[in-house]
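User: I want to check something. If I give you two sequences, will you return the structure for each one separately, not as a complex?

Assistant: Yes, each is folded on its own. Here is the first sequence with its structure:
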Amino acid sequence: MSTDVTDKSPAAAPPGKGGGSATGGAMLQLVVDGLRRNMRQYGMLIALGLLVILFQVWTDGDLLLPRNVSNLVLQNSYILILAIGMMLVIIAGHIDLSVGSLTAFTGAFAAVLTVQHDLAWPVALVLCLAVGAAAGAAQGFLIAHLGIPSFIVTLAGMLIFRGLTEMLLKGQTLGPFPDGLQKMGNGFLPEVGPDTNYHNITLLLGFALLTFAVLQEVRDRKRQQEFALEVVPRNLFLLKLVAISAAILTVTMLLASYKGAPIILLILGILVVGYGYVMRNAVFGRHIYAIGGNLPAAKLSGVKDKKVTFLVFLNMGVLAAVAGLVVAARLNAASPKAGLSFELEAIASAFIGGASMSGGVGTILGAIIGGLVLGVLNNGMNLLSVGTDWQQVIKGMALLIAVGFDVWNKRKSGS
């Protein structure tokens, strides 16, 4: 039977004066040690919570108004989608600078198909996903099989797709989109059931998510204990469960008291669960970590690094197409200037969420947390009427602090 070193209760204090305080001190020390060992995992989550509290105070409660929370989801959904794909790219040890331009190109392609040629929007959606996959596959082939650095290939892709967007739209904005496609970026889940003053489907989905999240955390902890892996102290784990439950319940009630959950939130949730499972449990996910962490060792272990790299960039192209459709649907028009700086936002989200410059490190949840940190910063500063100049400075400082923290944490772990 395996033993759990980090989760053991402290040795019983000798009877007599001070025994209780000694036991309490030992428990506190266990919690502190657990936080130190898991600072990489919880650091940005704590930072996100602090940001929400600070902006909630500074904006006199406007940040967590139901309408604003709904807008926060809609405004940042496409960045979160891109951040998921970018996290995989960075874990594999690469970078993708073309996603912003590819986002604009797929949105323009959808507008040409639906607005100019009256093609049914579901068919246009499938064709746009195929175009994104083809673009990602082309870049993946150049990187994986021809050995051209990803920075150069995707920099060229950024210029090519931006130029193709201008050519498709002829420098003009094109719209509006069909109603079905608009709902992808602006729509909400329908209301069903009795009148409860809340959105019933959103409540059900929120409670289902809460149950799934708690069970997943418990199952992961039991699995780590079965393999004699290090786990956080029990008190810290319970605190984590309470924090997760409180966050999910808060967001659920806020959304349910407005129009309900946006459709894009459901899409985003499916992506997070699906990609999270792949990166935690699937062979493909482990291979991505392997080639990013130690490429020579991965090759010796039989990992087909070229195939994995190719598929990572193909996947990035598909997610960029999804983000392009969401952006175009939300704006109800395709614009030549759409997607500007999206690649930087996605890269920043990944690094703020715990990705490492050297590759091999990062999680899907981390990418979402990083994207939410930037989203809360943007939304909070807009509510406070902070100028765009200072917004760029503050976001740049946030990225520097996050990466600097990662470097410091690595050095502390090494020492």
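And separately, the second sequence with its own structure:
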Amino acid sequence: MAEEKKRTRRANGESAIYLGKDGRWHARVPMGYKDDGTPYRRHLTRPTRKELVDEVRRLEKQRDEGSARQPGKPWTVAKWLEHWVENIAKPVISENTYAGYEVAVRVHLVPGIGRHRIDRLEPEHLESLYRRMQSAGSKAGTAHQAHRTARTALGEAVRRGHAAKNAAALAKPPRMEEDETEVEPYSIDEVQSLLLEVNKRRNSARWMLALALGLRQGETLGLRWSDVDLDNEYLKLRRNRLRPKYEHGCGEAAPCGRKAGYCPTRVQVRRETKNTKSRAGRRAVPLPGPLVVMLRSHREAQARERAAAGNLWTESAYVFTKPLGGPLSPNTDYHDWKRLLEDAGVRNGRLHDARHTAGTVLMLLGVPDRVIDQIMGWEPGGAARMRARYLHVTDPMLKEAARKIERAIWGAPENLAVDKDQDNEA
């Protein structure tokens, strides 16, 4: 025991374990260096030597793997999330992705779990937050967005040594309800009803690009005439139109009292478009003959609008513009879609459901998977997963499958009739 109590000189980098005057076992574990270059050691204490040795070995393993908490005051979850979203995530992600992260952090995560220390956050804390969110009226999809944000942010904290584990990676998000994920594509009859109504409206080709080719809203609104080759009947998709974001231009001295988007002197702080984020997204898409005709007619109508507007026209080179030029707002475009559905007498649905419809029609027509992937802009590695999500088995497809089974097992219908006659004669 006397030898155990006595401190001995240790080699550099080796942990020191000793029995203190307080009767407890103590250890000093070298963990690296502080920002100023001085050595950093963690002090541990336990009532028995065995407990202390086990804890020292666990900490040394974390140190060697690079997952141990770094020196300095531990981060709270709130401070880390706010630092991560503004200084780590924002410079390297798209504006839309940042907007989703920022809302999840500000509205849900910081108020819900922000006071916890990041190295003491447990999966149960997150699961409790998800339950509270749903009890307050949030959909499961909103809780999933908060979960994905927390998992990404805490994963970065683990990589940087601020926490030993990613609590969000261990937490179980709420189950997505079927009515939140189930999509029913529009039938051919519904698409034809929409087509009849579309032909009466301005920017009619905009909606047929969605229904026939499955173009995303951002891809369609970001389309410029330089991307369209009507002679060779194809278009190139290179960029996405972003949702506008505004700040007040009125100043603190004379505030307008309105939201930033309605400020009379508002300032646009987000770029209009961004390049597609994947190589598959930058693609050439073939144009069916009727769409070529619609786009030619649309270009002529736009030229007449430009001439009638004169100096009031805002030149932008976009295929689809406001009546006086300039890019269409995604919000205005969304409401135009809702009015189109109502005027055509077609059931209500999301604008993105048009993309599901286009993919399902391509499958129904027997277009090869590789061509569908090209038209829809899906990466080769994830194309199978995207087809499972977007291509829906319709009633006509099921009935055709039943007819094929019938022919394969029971033979052609005429053979069945002959068999029935023979049975009657017998």
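Because they were folded independently, the notes below concern the second chain alone. Residues 1-9 have pLDDT under 50 and may be disordered. The CA atoms of residues 242 and 319 lie 15 Å apart.
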